[in-house]
């Protein structure tokens, strides 16, 4: 502990920390970003339109991003790649839809509660089966569970097949806080309720990953055997984190259903949606807490809106992701410090920009050369 | 009833061989390189589109068959065209590996997923640019069916299906021969088992990896070619479901195991066709249910071997 | 025929005449609509349809249709002097989001989608936003019959016939061809998603009422599958009298290819497929063999015979010239959706002396009647479009180097759809 308020010693370095909760704090830069983020979030419905963005689309992005935050608990700490998180997102969405369409539950918050219960229950069940697996087997098992769920919903009259279910009770949208709202009012109340709950969830996640439990997950991620030796109940902890992770997805899916008011299997349960949730986490930066959220916003925006901008919109999204892999390996949020340094460097010495281009071109040319040689060898043999 | 059973089983085997041809490339790449190539389905689709062009051109050169012999000649031309189409995938695979995949072998697996997913998206638009947005069909299926096969033994069954089974078996046997008996194949296996040791005895791992990726792309393309000359069409998103089904096949078989992929594919093919026969609504879920059942009983798959191709 | 007669016949305006394909019958004359107070800026319209992948077989036809209608409107001076600008976007699974984007972009009207699930998701949103959408397809029967009855639906319309009309027409077609007493068994192979289940249910209800036939097999291969052999083998072993299939696009060609390959047409008396002709441009000559009656929804380009019906002839020539394909029913989905809205808009301008707002336009669209080269169409009080349904023998035309249908039967809407306010299944049961 330092003698000055807000100043701590860490690994021999003096750092300023703004304490948020007991034992946890932010650096000044992080505090600024967090503050700006908060202001941005709360002003979003009013700001987005000014810069030509659709805030409902940003809202959907936030929801998928929140599911990615959940997935990231597994990815970042236990180092498990889930390819089946759409099961919980979709499970939550269908939880809302089934309660509204078949049981006439008309209060949004109750529906949301139902979503969380349904999605989390799915996570408990699936987690029970997959907790003992690692690596690619874990990924593909989660994928299989996801696909079985998708196939069941897609082929079942109870879920109205792929046409999906309306989240409307007798044609009316649900109430929120037991009040009926206009179209815009409904969206706004839903948005602010979600944002507040989401901030609580983010804070909880932050506490969680910095708790002894979070450390245990890190240990499991690094080496399961060692973790087991030091007395960590590995499967049980993985199962628990899988469930928590699913809860985030279920909540996000539930809000998604309340926002869209119609739930279909393809946009919520299809296995490639699982892939997208995973890629959101990496795109935004899976070594950070809020990175997946940013990744969600960007990827959803690209997937939904790029078709209005260019003809080859798949390729546009692909190129963005490619750029992330090669130029921002830590994701958008994770790369912010590096990016700052890079920009500063190039501003100081603009000549090095050419150098960057040259080295990138050279790398590609070298790769193509190598490829040509290899193909020649495959086709014509050595010589 | 018996005849129905035989036909359903044959249909299952046929479908299994199709699945095997699609999955073989994926399992080769995964087995040696440890990369789960999400763009595999797009390489498969690319093979189907290239086949449309090449086979379309070649069959324009030969006359429509009039009898069994000319039908056989026609089939040979179509198969050669399919091979040529798949060969186009060799440089594609080699370039993808040496330009895009190579720089990230050392990074966490998730980057390989993100990268290959990005390539998946880009490939879709490359095909859209090359062949347009609507489906294409080389239209040789019915002519292939004129090749005399099962009717020689007094049984009516589409000759195309028989051809697929024969070709699929040939692909499997060739791959087994390649990895078991050929020098290059042994080098590849050696590299897969221990990269450092392989380098130490003078094997260029870089070149081996490029070769394996190119081979994987070749077989993906060949799978696409076999589907393209069949009753279906080639369309932009055709790679998505086969990609997911390929996962199922290679997981059931045991990752990286060629024999496993073979047995897994035939199992999925036959069990899913039987399942649809007995209870049609299960069609979409069947392969995944099979996979879950097998994995929960035998977690490493039927022929599980880690990190080496067998 | 003089101008007045033509105009009276098709709804009274030059634009309506042009879209009916009869503009060469008109001579120049002053148009009273020129006095109306109408904004100068062009009309912005959005169309969403499937532009790529397997469903593009249908979707691109809808695009061609909508573009053709827009071209004709603009060549004829626009709607009350307003040109139309059409933006076309991929429908994907995001139809609801696309519609919202169109509204955000200030579109005056939107068209599409193709998918029924997408359409279902959009209807409440359309009524919330209040910008008229005329669906090209999205034809699930229950949509306007049960889920969104007229009292709850103001701004959402659909041009293409809904499923019941083609599924029932298919049943009647089978009975007409084979005779009531000859049909003892039937089977179905339909795509395994909402549309396929819907079609099979209605066809089953219809054919059982008409003939008392028994269902012997019902299979639902996955949409976009690459293998239907199991279902075909089941049909082969059951040998039904009638096989019903609402497969479309690649699924339809796959069914015909594998069906021929496995000798299925030796084992059924008749295959009726309400959307088979949608694949007209993808079928090869050998696939048209066999006892196949192909449906073509609300439009078949050679009905009435193009030799005697110049609007049809000109349309085919224009489409062949412009796009190099034969127009199918989905072409008409796009063409008719645009035409419905455009003629209604002009009618409204004529009535009001100014450009109508969305509410007024919706009012005019309800119960609106108009012509296209396919004949006369109405939009019912339920916002559903009603047109003739077409079925014919699938055959090959050397002249067009494409599949055609011959010996075409035309079913009037009132014979294959329930009266307003009644649901299809109740109506069929009451026969």
Automatic annotation (TrEMBL), chain A:
Keyword set includes Cell membrane: yes
Keyword set, alphabetical order: Cell membrane, Membrane, Transmembrane, Transmembrane helix
Entry annotated with the keyword Transmembrane: yes
GO molecular function, one term: branched-chain amino acid transmembrane transporter activity
Compartment annotation: Cell membrane
Mode of membrane association: Multi-pass membrane protein
Main location per the UniProt record: membrane
InterPro entries: ABC_transp_permease, LivM-like
Superkingdom assignment: Archaea
Transmembrane segments: 32-52, 58-75, 82-103, 109-130, 137-158, 189-209, 237-259, 279-303, 310-328
GO cellular component, one term: plasma membrane
Designated name of the protein: Branched-chain amino acid ABC transporter permease
Organism of derivation: Natrialba swarupiae
TrEMBL record, chain B:
A GO term for molecular function: transmembrane transporter activity
Transmembrane segment boundaries: 12-36, 43-63, 69-90, 110-131, 160-179, 209-231, 243-267, 279-297
Membrane topology of the entry: Multi-pass membrane protein
Compartments where found: Cell membrane
Domain of life: Archaea
Keywords: Amino-acid transport, Cell membrane, Membrane, Transmembrane, Transmembrane helix, Transport
Gene Ontology annotations of biological process type: amino acid transport
InterPro entries: ABC_transp_permease, BCAA_transport_permease
GO cellular component: plasma membrane
Homology family: Belongs to the binding-protein-dependent transport system permease family. LivHM subfamily.
The protein's name: Branched-chain amino acid ABC transporter permease
Annotated organism of origin: Natrialba swarupiae
Automatic annotation (TrEMBL), chain C:
Family annotation (PROSITE patterns): PROKAR_LIPOPROTEIN
Segments forming a coiled coil: none
Listed InterPro entries: BCAA_transport, Leu-bd, Peripla_BP_I
Pfam families membership: Peripla_BP_6
Leucine-binding protein domain ranges (all copies): 42-394
Family annotation (SUPFAM superfamilies): Periplasmic binding protein-like I
PANTHER family noted in UniProt: ABC TRANSPORTER SUBSTRATE-BINDING PROTEIN (PTHR30483:SF37), LEUCINE-SPECIFIC-BINDING PROTEIN (PTHR30483)
UniProt-recorded name of the protein: ABC transporter substrate-binding protein
């Amino acid at each position: 502990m330092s003698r000055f308020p807000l100043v701590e010693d860490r690994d021999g370095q003096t750092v300023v920390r703004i304490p948020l909760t007991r034992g946890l704090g932010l650096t000044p830069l992080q505090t600024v970003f967090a503050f700006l983020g908060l202001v941005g979030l709360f002003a979003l419905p009013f700001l987005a339109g000014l810069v030509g963005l659709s805030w409902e689309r940003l809202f959907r992005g936030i929801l998928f991003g929140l599911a990615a935050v959940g997935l990231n608990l597994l990815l970042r700490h236990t180092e498990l790649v889930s390819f089946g998180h759409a099961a919980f997102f979709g499970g939550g969405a269908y939880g809302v839809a089934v309660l509204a369409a078949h049981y006439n539950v008309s209060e949004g918050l109750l529906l949301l509660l139902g979503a969380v219960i349904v999605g989390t229950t799915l996570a408990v069940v699936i987690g029970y089966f997959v907790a003992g697996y690692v690596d690619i087997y874990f990924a593909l098992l989660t994928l299989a569970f996801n696909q079985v769920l998708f196939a069941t919903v897609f082929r079942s009259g109870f879920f109205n097949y792929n046409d999906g279910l309306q989240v409307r009770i007798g044609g009316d949208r649900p109430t929120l806080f037991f009040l009926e709202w206009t179209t815009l009012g409904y969206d706004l109340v839903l948005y602010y309720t979600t944002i507040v709950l989401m901030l609580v969830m983010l804070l909880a996640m932050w506490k969680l990953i910095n708790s002894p439990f979070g450390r245990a997950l890190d240990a499991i991620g690094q080496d399961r055997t060692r973790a087991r030796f030091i007395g960590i109940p590995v499967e049980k902890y993985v199962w628990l984190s899988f469930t928590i992770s699913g809860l985030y997805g279920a909540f996000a899916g539930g809000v998604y259903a309340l926002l869209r008011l119609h739930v279909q299997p393809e946009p919520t349960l299809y296995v490639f949606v699982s892939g997208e949730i995973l890629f959101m986490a990496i795109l935004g930066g899976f070594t950070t807490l809020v990175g997946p959220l940013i990744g969600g916003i960007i990827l959803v925006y690209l997937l939904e809106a790029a078709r209005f901008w260019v003809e080859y919109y798949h390729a546009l999204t692909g190129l963005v992701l490619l750029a992330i892999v090669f130029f921002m390996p830590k994701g958008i949020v994770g790369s912010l410090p590096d990016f700052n340094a890079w920009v500063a460097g190039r501003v100081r010495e603009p000549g090095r920009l050419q150098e960057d281009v040259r080295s990138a071109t050279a790398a590609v040319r070298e790769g193509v050369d190598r490829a040509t040689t290899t193909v020649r060898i495959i086709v014509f043999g050595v010589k | 009833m018996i005849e129905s059973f035989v036909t359903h089983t044959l249909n299952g085997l046929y479908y299994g061989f199709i699945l095997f041809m699609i999955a073989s490339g994926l399992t080769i790449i995964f087995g040696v390189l440890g990369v789960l190539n999400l763009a595999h389905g797009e390489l498969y689709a690319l093979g189907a589109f290239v086949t449309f062009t090449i086979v379309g051109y070649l069959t324009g050169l030969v006359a429509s068959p009039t009898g069994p012999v000319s039908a056989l000649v026609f089939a040979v031309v179509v198969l050669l065209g399919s091979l040529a189409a798949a060969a186009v995938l060799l440089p594609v695979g080699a370039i993808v590996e040496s330009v895009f995949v190579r720089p990230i072998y050392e990074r966490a697996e998730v980057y390989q997923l993100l990268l290959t997913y990005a390539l998946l998206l880009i490939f879709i638009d490359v095909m859209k640019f090359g062949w347009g947005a609507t489906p294409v069909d080389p239209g040789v299926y019915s002519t292939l069916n004129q090749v005399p096969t099962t009717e020689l033994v007094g049984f009516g069954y589409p000759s195309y299906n028989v051809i697929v089974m024969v070709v699929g078996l040939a692909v499997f046997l060739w791959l087994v021969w390649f990895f078991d008996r050929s020098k290059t194949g042994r080098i590849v296996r050696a590299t897969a088992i221990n990269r450092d040791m392989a380098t130490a005895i003078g094997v260029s791992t870089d070149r081996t990896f490029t070769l394996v990726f190119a081979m994987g792309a070749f077989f993906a393309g060949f799978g696409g070619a076999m589907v393209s000359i069949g009753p279906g069409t080639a369309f932009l998103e055709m790679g998505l479901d086969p990609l997911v089904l390929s996962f199922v096949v290679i997981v059931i078989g045991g990752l990286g195991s060629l024999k496993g992929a073979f047995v897994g594919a035939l199992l999925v093919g036959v069990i899913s066709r039987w399942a649809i026969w007995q209870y049609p609504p299960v069609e979409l879920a069947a392969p995944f249910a099979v996979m879950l059942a097998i994995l929960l009983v035998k977690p490493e798959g039927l022929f599980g071997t880690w990190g080496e191709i067998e | 025929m003089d101008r007045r007669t033509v105009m009276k016949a098709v709804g009274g305006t030059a634009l309506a005449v042009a879209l009916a394909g009869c503009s060469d019958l008109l001579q120049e004359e002053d148009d009273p609509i020129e006095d109306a107070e109408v904004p100068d800026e062009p009309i912005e319209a959005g169309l969403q349809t499937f532009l790529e992948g397997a469903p593009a077989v249908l979707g691109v036809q809808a695009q061609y249709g909508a573009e053709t209608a827009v071209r004709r409107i603009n060549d004829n001076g626009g709607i009350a002097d307003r040109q139309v600008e059409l933006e076309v976007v991929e429908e994907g699974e995001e139809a609801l989001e696309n519609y919202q984007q169109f509204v955000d972009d200030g579109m005056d009207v939107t068209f599409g989608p193709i998918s029924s699930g997408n359409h279902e998701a959009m209807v409440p949103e359309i009524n919330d936003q209040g910008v008229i959408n005329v669906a090209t397809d999205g034809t699930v029967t229950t949509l306007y019959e049960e889920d969104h009855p007229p009292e709850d639906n103001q701004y959402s319309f659909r041009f293409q016939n809904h499923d019941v009309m083609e599924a029932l027409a298919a049943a009647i077609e089978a009975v007409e061809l084979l005779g009531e007493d000859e049909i003892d068994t039937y089977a179905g192979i339909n795509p395994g998603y909402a549309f396929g289940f819907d079609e099979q249910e209605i066809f089953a209800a219809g054919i059982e009422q008409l003939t008392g036939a028994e269902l012997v097999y019902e299979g639902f291969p996955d949409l976009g599958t690459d293998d239907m052999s199991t279902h075909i083998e089941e049909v082969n072993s059951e040998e039904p009298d009638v096989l019903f299939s609402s497969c479309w696009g690649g699924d339809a060609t796959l069914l015909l290819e594998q069906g021929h390959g496995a000798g299925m047409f030796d084992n059924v008396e008749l295959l009726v497929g309400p959307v088979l002709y949608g694949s007209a441009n993808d079928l090869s000559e050998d696939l048209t063999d066999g006892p196949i009656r192909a449906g073509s929804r609300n439009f078949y380009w050679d009905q009435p015979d193009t030799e005697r019906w110049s609007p049809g002839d000109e349309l085919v020539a224009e489409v062949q010239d412009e796009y190099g394909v034969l127009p199918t029913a989905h072409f008409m989905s796009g063409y008719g959706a645009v035409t419905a809205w455009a003629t209604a808009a002009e009618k409204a301008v004529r009535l009001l002396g100014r450009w109508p707002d969305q509410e007024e336009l919706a009012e005019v669209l309800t119960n609106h009647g108009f012509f296209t080269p396919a004949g006369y169409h109405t939009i019912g009080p339920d916002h559903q479009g009603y047109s003739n349904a077409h079925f014919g023998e699938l055959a090959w035309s050397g002249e067009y180097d494409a599949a055609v249908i011959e010996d075409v039967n035309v079913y009037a809407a009132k014979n294959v759809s329930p009266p307003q306010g009644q649901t299809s299944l109740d109506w069929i049961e009451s026969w």
